[in-house]
Amino acid sequence: MVFKDKVVAAFQKIQDSICQGLEQTDGKGKFEEELWSREGGGGGRTRILQNGNVIEKGGVNFSAVHGKLPDAIKKSFKLESDDFFATGVSIVMHPNNPFVPIIHMNIRYFEMDDQTRWFGGGIDLTPHYVIDTDARFFHHLLKQTCDKFDASFYPKFKAHADDYFFIRHREETRGVGGIFYDKLKPENTGLDFDRLLDFSAAVGNTFLPAYTELIDRNRDTDFNTEEQEWQYLRRSRYAEFNLVYDAGTKFGLETNGRIESILMSLPPMAKWVYNYQAIPDSAEADTLSKLKKGIEWA
Amino acid sequence: MVFKDKVVAAFQKIQDSICQGLEQTDGKGKFEEELWSREGGGGGRTRILQNGNVIEKGGVNFSAVHGKLPDAIKKSFKLESDDFFATGVSIVMHPNNPFVPIIHMNIRYFEMDDQTRWFGGGIDLTPHYVIDTDARFFHHLLKQTCDKFDASFYPKFKAHADDYFFIRHREETRGVGGIFYDKLKPENTGLDFDRLLDFSAAVGNTFLPAYTELIDRNRDTDFNTEEQEWQYLRRSRYAEFNLVYDAGTKFGLETNGRIESILMSLPPMAKWVYNYQAIPDSAEADTLSKLKKGIEWA
Question: Do A263 and B271 touch (CB under 8 A)?
Answer without folding.
Answer: no
